[in-house]
């Protein structure tokens, strides 16, 4: 197909329909959602770009295999209810996925339109359908008659919520145990309001409760009950405890006041709403903030710090922009908001004053050397290039490992050297009978949709296991 | 879900005891562990040691001192009121075994966490010598309970209004000097007291444990906010502790980290008290 410039009347648009969003100047001062969502007209225009391919590559790119051409067709027919139903047949959390999935590397990366011009904005359309449904009021879902089997889900992140929904629909009695006071996992404590409004997470949790799932917050497995005790009480257990143990660099000054792990900073800001004066949560509102890392977590921390009123926020990342693991869109948004990117730079030590407060970060320039085991070119320090960045808040966002609490009192649950639970990729089955695991607890920090994919696969395997039992 | 306050009592000026119905926590609780509570949706997550628990009744006792906004707010609640969240038991339980003679030292509200340990060490067959102290006799807490739970009880007050005139650590030193074979000393109280106590006990051939109260958020190892340096390594108080080998703890760092929010705290208290005078709160 030949590219045509501009728009022809009556013909499908060649260019993607842009996403309406808050202007950068405004949004950098508030925690409201950055992107505003498609209008009906936007959605129809964008949906009309889809070619409804016979052999849709986009579906293969989706970890939960949403029937993408199917739901987009229904949008074209203005059957938005049908569209959301089609999505929900395989994806229990579309309002969330439509906002935070890295579509550009998944479904949209495979879209045939992407070869010549821009792929269909699948994520934005998904979000449109989910938001449409939320405004109309979510329909009470159907569930199968009770099977009498009980399943415990440990962790209420996307993997847990997805599996719980699927298992409840199959008639099993599901209880979710969550150690924090609110369900949602990273969706609640990590990803900021301006990217994923907490009201949406709350409604998704409510939907799962409507299916008959019981959510028990403030309930830590490994402390209140061990995994072994849980196995006695339930017919099957699904471990989805995430990767919530923050890594530190082990450099000088890391325990100074004003140095946060991204988890602490983001939990205070998101879960505990430190930006809202009505809440008692404390957090340092830095004037000069340095964030170390290059993933979504670093972007979220930097943009949150900016919104708390910082004069200058910079991201220090040891490789180049192309190597940054963060979503493209988030990098762009961060740049528009004025976040400074210090690439090929690594912190060497953190400096403080006599009162133990952070005053700055000593950094060194890096260059990319030979590819390492991961296939990425490894950064090497360039000697003699040290320089100082002023800072009163430093946020470390260099990754997380799985939380070990779950292994306390769990005979025979295999763990590998990185601290993750060893589980079968297809079924989630672990070394312990009746115990399945998935999400970040198995893979290490990954994505919402891969966690959901693991939740779906495990739900299927757990159902089969329960039928055999 | 909410957690009901069954009893509430001011046991010393600005020090309160509260018994809360929390079945799951009570069932699993062990000496040395703590809980995190939140008064309401807008509240902070505040860690408090489990001062007592009754498994059959499903109750947990906490003892707290009015410090900042949250504990002042907590002090205003009474029996019949509810707390929004009450999560626990958190932390690694104290390592309680039969060791022989154990000295337990508690200062101020630090006596609260010492009390369940006294009971546990005693029932594990140890000779428990307890030393409790406060600034003056009015601020002493749990005297009768400690008397019952210990083989011997000593009291110290800064002003001499009761017991020894001076510090708990003076008594501890005297016992260690007496040549009595002591296997372990556990010191719990304000950080400065633990630091001094650890210093005093250090030269003796005895294991010294302290229970650290770093600033916490989740209490499960997720945020990394509670980190302390122990033996040159970074540890998370909530999961690796709260008890650590006193000789290895970097107390200066701990005290500096505890002062992190001092400015904000003063502001919060001032704001809270100003609001309270309006008669609406
Ligand atoms: C700041 C941030 C931004 C991100 N941005 C994106 C993004 O834009 N797009 C994307 O796709 N991915 C993103 N991710 C990654 C994504 O959020 C995770 O991969 C995903 O949430 C993993 O899901 P999960 O269900 O495995 O675990 P989690 O979401 O981590 O949930 C695990 C839950 O288990 C609970 N838990 C842990 N231990 C216990 C226990 N012993 N007992 C009871 N409960 C327990 C935890 O409290 C937590 O609520 C981001 C992550 C972070 C931190
Ligand atoms: C494991 C542990 C057990 C504890 N047990 C007890 C106890 O049994 N009785 C008791 O009275 N106190 C206990 N504390 C201390 C208690 O948590 C704090 O005094 C309380 O948080 C003060 O709250 P506030 O809002 O009234 O005061 P704030 O105005 O918030 O602060 C007063 C002081 O409390 C400390 N503090 C503030 N927030 C926290 C936090 N989230 N975590 C830890 N410390 C904080 C700071 O040092 C601060 O200077 C314990 C702390 C920990 C970590
Ligand atoms: S690959 Fe692109 S054009 Fe084809 S069906 Fe999927 S979204 Fe539509
Ligand atoms: S309180 Fe968050 S890691 Fe200890």
From TrEMBL, chain A:
Domain named Dihydroprymidine dehydrogenase: residues: 27-137
InterPro entries in the cross-refs: DPD_II (IPR028261), FAD/NAD-bd_sf (IPR036188), FAD/NAD-binding_dom (IPR023753), Helical_ferredxn (IPR009051), SudA-like (IPR006004)
Organism: Methanosarcina acetivorans
An MF annotation (GO) of this entry: iron-sulfur cluster binding
Residue span, FAD/NAD(P)-binding domain: 149-455
Entry-linked Gene3D superfamilies: Alpha-helical ferredoxin, FAD/NAD(P)-binding domain
Name this protein carries in UniProt: NADPH-dependent glutamate synthase
Region entry Disordered, spans: 1-30
Keyword Transmembrane: no
Keyword rRNA-binding among record annotations: no
Automatic annotation (TrEMBL), chain B:
Organism this protein belongs to: Methanosarcina acetivorans
This protein's name: Sulfide/dihydroorotate dehydrogenase-like FAD/NAD-binding protein
Cofactor: how and how many bound: Binds 1 [2Fe-2S] cluster per subunit.
Residues in FAD-binding FR-type domain copies: 1-96
CDD domains, per the entry: DHOD_e_trans_like1 (cd06219)
Annotated GO MF terms: 2 iron, 2 sulfur cluster binding; flavin adenine dinucleotide binding; metal ion binding; oxidoreductase activity
Sorted UniProt keywords: 2Fe-2S, FAD, Flavoprotein, Iron, Iron-sulfur, Metal-binding
GO biological process, one term: pyrimidine nucleotide biosynthetic process
Top-rank taxon, per record: Archaea
Annotated residues for binding of [2Fe-2S] cluster: 223, 226, 238
Positions that bind FAD: 63-65
Keyword Transmembrane: no
Pfam families assigned to the protein according to its UniProt record, in alphabetical order: DHODB_Fe-S_bind, NAD_binding_1
PROSITE patterns the record matches: FAD_FR
Cofactor: [2Fe-2S] cluster; FAD
């Amino acid at each position: 197909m030949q590219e045509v410039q501009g728009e022809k009347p009556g013909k499908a648009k060649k260019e993607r329909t842009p996403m309406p969003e808050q202007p950068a100047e405004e949004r950098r001062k508030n925690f409201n959602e950055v992107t505003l969502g498609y209008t009906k007209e936007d959605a129809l225009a964008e949906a009309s770009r889809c070619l409804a391919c016979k052999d849709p590559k986009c579906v293969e790119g989706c970890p939960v295999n949403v029937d993408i051409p199917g739901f987009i067709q229904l949008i074209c027919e203005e059957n938005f209810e049908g569209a959301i139903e089609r999505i929900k047949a395989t994806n229990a959390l579309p309002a969330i996925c439509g906002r935070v999935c890295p579509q550009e590397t998944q479904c949209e990366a495979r879209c045939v339109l992407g070869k010549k011009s821009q792929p269909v904005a699948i994520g934005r359309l998904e979000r449109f359908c989910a938001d449409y449904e939320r405004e109309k009021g979510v329909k009470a879902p159907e569930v199968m008659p009770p099977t009498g089997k009980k399943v415990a889900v440990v962790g209420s992140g996307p993997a847990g919520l997805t599996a719980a929904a699927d298992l409840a629909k199959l008639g099993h009695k599901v209880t979710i145990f969550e150690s924090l006071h609110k369900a949602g996992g990273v969706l609640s404590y990590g990803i900021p309001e301006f990217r994923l409004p907490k009201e949406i997470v709350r409604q998704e949790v409510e939907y799962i409760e409507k299916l008959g799932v019981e959510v028990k917050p403030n309930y830590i497995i490994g402390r209140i009950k061990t995994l072994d005790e849980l196995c006695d009480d339930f017919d099957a257990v699904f471990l989805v405890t995430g990767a919530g143990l923050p890594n530190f660099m082990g450099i000088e000054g890391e325990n100074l006041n004003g140095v946060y792990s991204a988890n602490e900073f983001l939990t205070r800001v998101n879960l505990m709403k430190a930006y809202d004066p009505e809440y008692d949560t404390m957090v340092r509102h830095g004037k000069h903030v340095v964030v170390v890392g290059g993933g979504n977590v670093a972007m979220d921390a930097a943009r949150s710090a900016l919104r708390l009123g910082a004069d200058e926020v910079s991201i220090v990342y040891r490789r180049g922009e192309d190597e940054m693991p963060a979503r493209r869109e988030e990098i762009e948004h961060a740049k528009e908001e004025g976040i400074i990117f210090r690439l090929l730079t690594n912190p060497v030590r953190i400096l403080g004053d006599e009162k133990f407060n952070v005053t700055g970060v000593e950094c060194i320039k890096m260059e990319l050397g030979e590819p390492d085991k991961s296939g990425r070119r490894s950064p090497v320090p360039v000697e003699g290039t040290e320089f100082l960045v002023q800072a009163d808040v430093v946020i470390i966002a260099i990754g997380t490992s799985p939380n070990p609490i779950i292994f306390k009192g769990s005979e025979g649950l295999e763990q590998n050297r990185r601290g993750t639970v060893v589980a079968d990729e297809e079924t989630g089955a672990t070394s312990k009978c009746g115990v399945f695991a998935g999400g970040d607890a198995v893979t290490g920090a990954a994505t919402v949709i891969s966690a959901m994919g693991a939740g779906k696969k495990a739900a299927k395997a757990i159902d089969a296991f329960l039928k055999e039992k | 879900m909410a957690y009901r306050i069954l009893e509430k009592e001011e046991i010393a000026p600005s020090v309160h005891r509260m018994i809360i119905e929390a079945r799951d926590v009570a069932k699993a609780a062990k000496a040395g562990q703590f809980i995190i509570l939140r008064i309401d949706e807008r509240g902070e997550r505040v860690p408090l040691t489990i001062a007592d628990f009754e498994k059959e009744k499903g109750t947990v006792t906490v003892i707290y001192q009015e410090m900042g906004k949250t504990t002042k707010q907590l002090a205003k609640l009474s029996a019949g009121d509810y707390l929004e969240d009450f999560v626990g038991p958190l932390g690694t339980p104290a390592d309680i075994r039969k060791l022989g003679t154990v000295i337990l030292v508690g200062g101020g509200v630090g006596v609260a966490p010492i009390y369940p340990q006294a009971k546990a060490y005693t029932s594990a067959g140890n000779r428990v010598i307890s030393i409790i102290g406060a600034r003056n006799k009015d601020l002493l807490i749990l005297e009768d309970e400690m008397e019952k739970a210990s083989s011997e009880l000593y009291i110290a007050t800064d002003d001499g209004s009761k017991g020894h005139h001076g510090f708990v650590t003076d008594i501890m030193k005297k016992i260690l000097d007496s040549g009595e074979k002591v296997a372990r000393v556990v010191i719990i109280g304000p950080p400065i007291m633990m630091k001094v106590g650890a210093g005093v006990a250090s030269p003796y051939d005895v294991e010294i444990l302290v229970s650290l109260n770093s600033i916490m958020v989740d209490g499960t190892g997720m945020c990394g906010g509670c980190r302390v340096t122990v033996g040159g390594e970074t540890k998370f108080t909530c999961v690796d502790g709260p008890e650590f080998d006193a000789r290895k703890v970097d107390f200066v760092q701990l005290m500096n980290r505890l002062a992190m929010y001092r400015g904000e705290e003063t502001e919060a208290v001032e704001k809270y008290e100003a609001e309270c005078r309006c008669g609406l709160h």
